Amino acid sequence: MNGSPVSHHITPVRTYVIIFLTLLVLTYTTAKIGEIELGDWNFVVAISIAITKALLVILFFMHAKDSSNLTKMFIGAGFFWMMILILVTLCDYISRPWQSNPVWMR
Protein backbone atom coordinates (compact mmCIF):
# COMPACT_ATOMS: atom_id res chain seq x y z
CA MET A 1 0.00 0.00 0.00
CA ASN A 2 2.96 2.33 -0.61
CA GLY A 3 3.32 3.06 3.09
CA SER A 4 0.14 5.16 3.35
CA PRO A 5 -1.90 4.47 6.49
CA VAL A 6 -5.29 4.07 4.81
CA SER A 7 -7.92 2.40 6.94
CA HIS A 8 -11.10 1.17 5.37
CA HIS A 9 -14.23 0.96 7.46
CA ILE A 10 -16.25 -2.19 6.85
CA THR A 11 -19.99 -1.76 7.27
CA PRO A 12 -21.88 -4.88 8.38
CA VAL A 13 -24.55 -6.26 6.04
CA ARG A 14 -27.08 -5.89 8.87
CA THR A 15 -26.68 -2.09 8.65
CA TYR A 16 -27.41 -2.12 4.93
CA VAL A 17 -30.52 -4.25 5.47
CA ILE A 18 -31.79 -1.92 8.21
CA ILE A 19 -31.21 1.17 6.07
CA PHE A 20 -32.88 -0.50 3.07
CA LEU A 21 -35.94 -1.43 5.15
CA THR A 22 -36.05 2.10 6.56
CA LEU A 23 -36.01 3.49 3.01
CA LEU A 24 -38.86 1.15 2.06
CA VAL A 25 -40.91 2.30 5.07
CA LEU A 26 -40.24 5.96 4.23
CA THR A 27 -41.25 5.37 0.61
CA TYR A 28 -44.48 3.71 1.74
CA THR A 29 -45.06 6.60 4.16
CA THR A 30 -44.55 9.10 1.34
CA ALA A 31 -47.16 7.33 -0.79
CA LYS A 32 -49.71 7.17 2.03
CA ILE A 33 -49.11 10.76 3.16
CA GLY A 34 -49.67 11.85 -0.46
CA GLU A 35 -53.25 10.56 -0.21
CA ILE A 36 -53.98 12.72 2.84
CA GLU A 37 -54.82 16.41 2.43
CA LEU A 38 -52.54 18.32 4.81
CA GLY A 39 -53.07 21.76 3.31
CA ASP A 40 -49.93 23.88 3.43
CA TRP A 41 -48.03 21.08 5.20
CA ASN A 42 -48.01 18.72 2.18
CA PHE A 43 -44.82 20.25 0.83
CA VAL A 44 -43.09 20.35 4.21
CA VAL A 45 -43.82 16.69 4.95
CA ALA A 46 -42.84 15.54 1.45
CA ILE A 47 -39.53 17.46 1.46
CA SER A 48 -38.73 16.28 5.00
CA ILE A 49 -39.18 12.63 4.04
CA ALA A 50 -37.21 13.14 0.79
CA ILE A 51 -34.29 14.80 2.58
CA THR A 52 -34.26 12.04 5.20
CA LYS A 53 -34.11 9.38 2.49
CA ALA A 54 -31.39 11.26 0.61
CA LEU A 55 -29.31 11.58 3.77
CA LEU A 56 -29.61 7.86 4.50
CA VAL A 57 -28.49 6.98 0.98
CA ILE A 58 -25.59 9.44 1.04
CA LEU A 59 -24.39 8.52 4.52
CA PHE A 60 -24.60 4.74 4.28
CA PHE A 61 -24.81 3.55 0.66
CA MET A 62 -22.37 6.16 -0.65
CA HIS A 63 -20.15 5.75 2.46
CA ALA A 64 -20.03 9.48 3.19
CA LYS A 65 -20.24 8.76 6.90
CA ASP A 66 -16.73 7.30 6.86
CA SER A 67 -15.27 9.66 4.25
CA SER A 68 -12.66 12.38 4.58
CA ASN A 69 -13.52 15.86 5.78
CA LEU A 70 -13.02 17.21 2.26
CA THR A 71 -15.68 14.84 0.91
CA LYS A 72 -18.05 15.83 3.72
CA MET A 73 -17.44 19.50 2.90
CA PHE A 74 -18.41 18.95 -0.75
CA ILE A 75 -21.53 17.03 0.28
CA GLY A 76 -22.48 19.88 2.60
CA ALA A 77 -21.86 22.40 -0.18
CA GLY A 78 -24.14 20.38 -2.46
CA PHE A 79 -26.92 20.43 0.10
CA PHE A 80 -26.38 24.15 0.69
CA TRP A 81 -26.66 24.80 -3.06
CA MET A 82 -29.81 22.65 -3.26
CA MET A 83 -31.40 24.67 -0.45
CA ILE A 84 -30.55 27.91 -2.29
CA LEU A 85 -32.23 26.59 -5.44
CA ILE A 86 -35.33 25.49 -3.52
CA LEU A 87 -35.49 28.86 -1.73
CA VAL A 88 -35.23 30.83 -4.98
CA THR A 89 -37.87 28.65 -6.61
CA LEU A 90 -40.23 29.08 -3.65
CA CYS A 91 -39.67 32.84 -3.61
CA ASP A 92 -40.64 32.99 -7.28
CA TYR A 93 -43.66 30.72 -6.74
CA ILE A 94 -44.93 32.62 -3.69
CA SER A 95 -44.47 36.07 -5.24
CA ARG A 96 -46.62 35.39 -8.32
CA PRO A 97 -50.13 36.79 -8.19
CA TRP A 98 -52.84 34.22 -8.75
CA GLN A 99 -55.26 35.19 -11.46
CA SER A 100 -58.25 33.33 -12.79
CA ASN A 101 -57.43 34.37 -16.38
CA PRO A 102 -53.73 35.20 -16.77
CA VAL A 103 -52.66 37.63 -19.49
CA TRP A 104 -50.58 35.02 -21.32
CA MET A 105 -53.61 32.78 -21.80
CA ARG A 106 -55.71 35.40 -23.64
* Structural class computed from helices and strand pairing: mainly alpha
Q: Strand fraction band?
A: under 5%
Shape: flat
Low-confidence stretches: none
Mean pLDDT: 85
Query: Portion of residues in helices?
Result: 55-70%
Number of helical elements: 3
Could you explain how this protein is built, in words?
This protein is mainly alpha-helical and 106 residues long. The protein contains three helices and no strands. Helix 1 runs antiparallel to helix 2. The longest helix is centred in the last third of the chain and has 27 residues, at 69-95. The termini are far apart.
Keywords:
single chain; 106 residues; mainly alpha
Short description:
66% of the residues lie in helices and 0% in strands.
Topology:
Blueprint: H1 13-34, H2 41-61, H3 69-95
